[in-house]
Design brief:
The protein folds into four domains: about 140 residues, PAS domain (Beta-Lactamase, 2-Layer Sandwich); about 100 residues, 2-Layer Sandwich (Beta-Lactamase), CATH 3.30.450.20; about 160 residues, Reverse transcriptase/Diguanylate cyclase domain (Alpha-Beta Plaits); about 230 residues, TIM Barrel. It contains 27 helices and 26 strands. Strands 18-19-21-22-23-24-25-26 form an eight-stranded mixed barrel, surrounded by five helices. It has a five-stranded antiparallel sheet with strand order 2-1-5-4-3. It has a five-stranded antiparallel sheet with strand order 7-6-10-9-8, with helices on both faces. Helix 25 packs across helix 26. It holds the Pfam family GGDEF. InterPro entries: Biofilm_reg_signaling, EAL_dom, EAL_sf, GGDEF_dom, Nucleotide_cyclase, PAS, PAS-like_dom_sf, PAS_fold. This is PAS domain S-box/diguanylate cyclase (GGDEF) domain-containing protein.
Length: about 725
């Protein structure tokens, strides 16, 4: 083993080339950047048996040792001509003693040629001795070249010996090549220890982007042997999609700056590894052009890609999520503009998903959705045209259609594909879907198309499911009207256009008013009165009903405070208000603010709302009842609650729905018997009773004869503002 094999960190020196080509900085065009570079693996340079030896400076970590030498010491690298022969040696390092010997500062010596440092000797045999020592791997002792006027006793002998890719010049004195070799060997041991445990990859390249040196970590990170890479073009190992960026921002002319980012680097097994790091200009005089410091970030890139995928794809079906589907619709609309072709958006809703979730849990429902997603994709033939909407909805984009009939034909194909039986959790299921179709019009927006398709899908469900429906203009107009109406309600609440009106409640036996029911009314600025049947359903859908309930409660209690103490006030409580955690507190605050006794307040909750009663709501009802507030079940006989609620909740009274009263007016025998039975239940539980919708004296007498205690309706007076 030669001395150069012992110290591989003393990198071999490359040939100096005349770098004539100019690397273009034209943004967006990498042709000039890549011109002249042979990058592909089939490049013969990638299989050179003896790649050109690379250049390097002083050994890493070796400067303290060399600086401490008591004798002059130079490191020189060979300079080669076009034919590859050594034509001179260039100084890459000079210790302090060598600088004093030559009478120059280090910056004047480093980079200088041997022929320039000692022209007279190089004209003779000094260069030949150095060449023989370098090529033969031997130590050659020659008379020491001095300088004019040197002091007596100056060193008179010079030893020339190779070390890796360098030629070492050591003037005779206290230091010996063997001692220097020992010190460098210790540095080499430490270098290997550091390189073996390094997690980063360090690469030095020349101005032609050929690898001069690579750290040993390349074996562990990429599977390459370091010697196999030396002399090869670095860009051959960079992914083709990343080369332009690296050349444009980093590996260009030395004055271009630095590059920091990510690159995909080829592994020995022909795979790719994502690596992050930086490219820096190599130190002047080192012989290299660039130093690349790279770190394996494959795990980070993989996680980032998975997160990005999850943000754009549904986890159950793998389909594009809603915002991605909208983006594809937008792109299709842009492409369609001016072509005369038609575009359609299909909203596909899964029929009967709730029963599947109830029977097989949501995991079973997800399996059903995944099954149907696959069937829809196969029916369409293009996965990129299918997306997942919200809940049980799929979104399908159809473009380049000749007519709406073609969209309907594709919808029929989807219906057929989806209705084939499947088995989930051992249970046979006959799935069906309902499809809404919306076709593009001039100036249509993606959101509008999807909205229209969803409206049509709901229309298909209303027709009986397992069918498709094209958007009905009247349906779209109705939806738009509902939206405007909701905005009007919100504006009316802000402008205080809503108020509590009051309908009297009368004792059947005495005919006297015993209290009032507070009802919400909306009078718009133009004087038009909007009935509760019009605005209450919309307010419930838009989440505005709680604000209306609280407004009516406050106004009702203020009005009650001005009425005689024997009168009561009934106030309706919607299911949404009942579910508010702060409802008991707000009721208590309103009572205190109005100065009204809790016993005078009756809170009415519909029978249907009782179905949603949770343990927390049950406790709130009991809390208010404990204060003296009386609870009534409104519209009794029309909802879905169990009669057990009358037993388990602190209910004080029942209100017979007006539909019973109107049926009694028509002499309906079954209604008469039901009414009689209900009053019997109330009497057995000692509950108060109120019959709604009383319009004639005959109805009042009939209800009285059955045992109903109170009544309200137009016969006793319509709802109106109440002036005490």
């Amino acid at each position: 083993m030669g001395f150069s094999d012992t110290f591989p960190f003393l990198h071999p020196v490359s040939r100096q080339r005349n770098h004539k080509k100019v690397i273009s900085n034209t943004a967006g065009d990498c042709e000039p950047l890549l011109e002249g570079l042979t990058l592909m693996p089939e490049d013969p340079a990638l299989s050179l048996p003896e790649p050109p030896p690379p250049a390097a400076g002083a050994p890493a970590g070796g400067q303290p040792v060399l600086d401490a030498l008591p004798d002059p010491f130079l490191l020189l690298r060979p300079e080669r001509g076009v034919a590859g022969t050594i034509t001179d040696f260039i100084c890459t390092y000079a210790n302090g003693e060598a600088c004093r010997l030559h009478g120059h500062q280090p910056e004047r010596i480093v980079g200088a040629r041997l022929r320039d440092l000692h022209p007279s000797h190089c004209a003779g045999d000094l260069f030949e001795h150095g060449l023989r020592a370098f090529e033969a791997g031997q130590t050659v002792a020659v008379p020491a070249p001095g300088r004019p006027g040197e002091a007596p006793g100056a060193p008179r002998a010079l030893r020339l010996f190779p070390a890796g890719g360098w030629l070492c010049c050591l003037w005779s004195g206290a230091s010996e090549p063997a001692d220097l070799r020992r010190r460098l060997s210790e540095l080499e041991r430490r270098h290997h220890l550091l390189a073996g445990h390094a997690s980063d990859l360090v690469i030095e390249v020349d101005a032609d982007h050929r690898i001069l040196w690579v750290s040993e970590s390349v074996q562990k990170l990429l599977g390459w042997s370091p010697p196999a890479l030396v002399g090869r073009p670095a860009m051959a190992f960079v992914h083709s999609d990343d080369r332009c960026r690296a050349l444009r921002t980093g590996l260009g002319p030395r004055d271009r700056g630095r590059f920091e980012g990510e690159l995909r680097i080829r592994r020995a097994d022909d795979g790719w590894c994502s690596m992050g790091g930086s490219v820096r200009p190599a130190p002047e005089g080192s012989g290299g052009a660039w130093v690349l410091c790279l770190r394996d970030i494959q795990d980070r890139v993989t996680i980032r890609a998975e997160l990005d995928h999850s943000q754009h794809h549904d986890t159950v079906t793998g389909l594009a999520v809603r915002h991605v589907a909208l983006g594809r619709i937008r792109e299709a609309l842009d492409r369609q503009a001016g072509t005369g072709s038609m575009l359609a958006v299909l909203s596909i809703g899964v029929d009967g998903l709730t029963p599947v979730n109830d029977a097989l849990t949501h995991a079973g429902g997800d399996q059903l959705i995944a099954f149907l997603a696959g069937r829809i994709v196969r029916a369409i033939g293009e996965p990129d045209r299918v997306g997942r909407g919200t809940g049980d909805e799929f979104i399908v984009l159809l473009s380049d259609l000749a007519s709406a009939a073609e969209a309907a034909h594709r919808a029929e194909r989807i219906l057929t594909a989806c209705r084939a039986p499947i088995t989930i959790g051992g249970q046979p299921i006959d799935p069906t879907v309902s499809i809404g179709i919306a076709t593009s019009a001039a100036g249509a927006l993606p959101d509008e198309l999807l909205r229209d398709a969803s409206l049509a899908m709901r229309q298909a469900k209303a027709r009986g499911r397992n069918c498709f429906a094209l958007l009905d203009d009247a349906l779209a107009t109705e939806a738009h009207t509902r939206l405007l109406f909701a905005a009007e309600i919100q504006r009316g609440l802000v402008m205080e256009e809503f108020a509590a009106w009051f309908m009297p409640i009368v004792c059947f036996e005495t005919g006297e008013v015993t209290g009032y029911e507070a009802l919400a009314r909306w009078v718009r600025p133009d004087g038009i009165e909007v009935g509760p049947a019009e605005f209450l359903p919309c307010a419930e859908r838009r989440g505005l009903i709680v604000r209306i309930d609280r407004l009516v409660l406050r106004q009702a209690l203020v009005t009650l405070s001005r009425l005689p103490d024997e009168l009561t006030m009934a106030v309706n409580v919607s299911a949404a208000t009942l579910a508010q955690p702060d409802h008991p507190q707000l009721v208590a605050e309103a009572l205190e603010a109005a100065g009204v006794s809790p016993e005078r307040l009756h809170l009415e909750v519909t029978e249907t709302a009782l179905v949603t009663v949770t343990e927390r709501i049950r406790q709130q009802i009991q809390q208010l009842a404990g204060r003296g507030i009386r609870w009534y079940v409104d519209d009794f006989g029309t909802g879905y609650s169990s009669i057990s609620h009358l037993r388990d909740l602190p209910i004080a009274g029942l209100k017979l729905d007006r539909s019973f009263t109107s049926a009694m007016r028509a002499k309906d025998t079954k209604t008469l018997r039901l009414s009689q039975a209900l009053v019997g239940v109330a009497e057995g539980l000692e509950l108060d009773t109120v019959a709604e919708g009383v319009e004639t004296i005959e109805e009042a007498r009939l209800l009285t004869s059955q045992g109903w205690l109170h009544g309200q309706g137009w016969f006793y007076g319509k709802a109106a503002p109440l002036e005490p």
